């Protein structure tokens, strides 16, 4: 009897243990590694006549951070429905994006009737919106009532529109919404949301399937950065083993029949040119992100703080550090002849988010704070100011951001 009793005790302990292990395994398997979001951002193209600004959503903040933000919003005495009107004072490149009611705009439990448009009466509007590149450098900003805010918007570089660097010009604005990271509502060409992250994380084509060449697509032949002159020198080297294939309007040496998909084209090359049209802090356009998505190793020329935006600082070949066409070709030779070294430049694509650079991870978290859309974000800033007025300043008065930036008087 004693042996039988011991047998049943063993059997019960065994079954309970198996049950616990199966429960744990099922829980781990059913836990999603990531949350999927239905999000889309249409990037801009330097060659296109009209830009499409479409930040339609983004990842949620971590639960605790999101909860704190929600509590902060709830401390404002918002009504269930609030009207915010923003009068568009200039022309712009964004079609109908800044006309009409912005859908699905909320703050906490409050629905914001966030309305933009040139037809919004500037005398009664909560804010006046100005597209800096459309102002021609002339400041004709006028407030119509004491609580009214002025908004300066630009996705274009200050090298092309120097008014952005002029304190006398910018001091009339309360809110900045530009490519600069110090903006109250930044507008980045790459917004670090799940849809965009999934694109750049796509595996690259195998080393052996890519052309051992440098692909170059450029149709702005007079860019202030000097990229056309640099690439003309690269083309002039006529490198015997790493030729340069140019498909754009500048120094084209390849046959082009009609339109082509740039990302698909450059994905078939080991190296691709991704040089900005102008060099200034934080100005990073779709050229870089297209290259990273394509899986070619980009020869990049841009701002000095580019590493702050990358998943891995080694993901690019930084032309600024090489300094000459000859040094560039020597580096391409090295990578083309060493598969392991080449693939190390793309190793970031196989890493999880928490294995990417700390700056990149911070950008992903920060993306949630700019959602659901920059237009709605601006309405939130304006609404908060209605209840708790602030003394706003734009980037040129941000001492931290300007520490490594030359501000014109």
What are the main properties of this structure?
seven-stranded mixed beta sheet, 14% strand, 409 residues, Glyco_tran_10_C, five-stranded parallel beta sheet, alpha/beta, 2 domains, disordered N terminus, Rossmann fold, elongated, glycosyltransferase
Shape, per Cα inertia axes: elongated
> How many strands in all?
12
Helix fraction by DSSP (H/I, runs of at least 4):
25-40%
Largest sheet: 7 strands, mixed
CATH homologous superfamily identity of the largest domain = Glycosyl transferase family 10, C-terminal domain
Strand content: 5-15%
CATH architecture of the largest domain: 3-Layer(aba) Sandwich
CATH class of the largest domain: Alpha Beta
Which radius of gyration do the C-alpha atoms yield?
26 Å
Look up the CATH topology of the largest domain.
Rossmann fold
Name the structural class. Answer: alpha/beta
What are the secondary-structure elements, in order, as H or E? HHEEEEEEHEHEHEHEHEEHHHHH
Low-confidence stretches: 1-63
Q: Please, what is the average pLDDT?
A: 84
- The total count of helices amounts to 12
Measure the end-to-end span.
Answer: 97 Å
Total separate domains: 2
Pathway: Protein modification; protein glycosylation
Domain Fucosyltransferase C-terminal: 208-390
Protein name: Fucosyltransferase
Pfam families: Glyco_transf_10
């Amino acid at each position: 009897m004693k042996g039988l009793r011991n047998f049943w005790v063993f059997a019960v302990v065994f079954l309970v243990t198996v049950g616990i292990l199966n429960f744990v395994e099922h829980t781990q398997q059913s836990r999603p590694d990531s949350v999927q979001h239905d999000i889309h951002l249409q990037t801009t193209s330097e060659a296109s006549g009209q830009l499409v600004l479409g930040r339609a959503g983004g990842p949620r903040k971590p639960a605790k951070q999101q909860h704190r933000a929600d509590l902060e919003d709830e401390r404002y005495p918002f009504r269930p429905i609030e009207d915010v009107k923003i009068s568009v004072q200039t022309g712009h490149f964004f079609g109908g994006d800044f006309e009409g009611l912005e859908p699905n705009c909320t703050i906490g439990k409050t629905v914001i009737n966030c309305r933009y448009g040139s037809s919004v009466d500037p005398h009664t509007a909560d804010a006046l919106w100005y597209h800096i590149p459309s102002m021609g450098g002339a400041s004709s900003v006028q407030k119509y009532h004491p609580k009214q805010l002025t908004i300066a918007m630009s996705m274009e570089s200050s090298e092309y529109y120097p008014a952005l660097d002029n304190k006398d010009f910018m001091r009339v604005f309360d809110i900045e919404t530009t490519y600069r990271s110090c903006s109250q509502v930044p507008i980045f060409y790459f917004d670090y949301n799940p849809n965009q992250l999934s694109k750049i994380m796509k595996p690259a084509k195998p080393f052996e399937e890519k052309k051992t060449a440098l692909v170059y697509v450029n149709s702005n032949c007079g860019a202030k950065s000097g990229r056309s002159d640099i690439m003309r020198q690269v083309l002039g080297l006529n490198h015997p083993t790493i030729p340069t294939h140019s498909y754009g309007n500048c120094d084209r040496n390849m046959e082009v029949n009609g339109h082509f998909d740039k990302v698909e084209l450059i994905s078939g090359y080991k190296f691709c040119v991704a040089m900005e049209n102008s060099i200034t802090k934080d100005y990073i356009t779709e050229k870089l992100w297209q290259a990273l998505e394509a899986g070619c190793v980009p020869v990049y020329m841009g701002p000095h703080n580019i590493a702050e935006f990358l998943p891995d600082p080694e993901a690019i070949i930084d032309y600024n550090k090489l300094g000459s066409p000859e040094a560039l070709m020597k580096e391409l030779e090295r990578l083309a002849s060493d598969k392991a070294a080449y693939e190390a430049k793309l190793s970031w694509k196989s890493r999880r988010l928490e294995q990417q650079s700390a700056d990149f991870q911070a950008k992903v978290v920060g993306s949630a704070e700019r959602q659901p859309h920059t237009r709605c974000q601006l309405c939130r800033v304006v609404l908060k100011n209605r209840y708790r007025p602030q003394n706003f300043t734009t980037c040129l008065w941000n001492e931290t951001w300007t520490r490594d930036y030359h501000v014109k008087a």
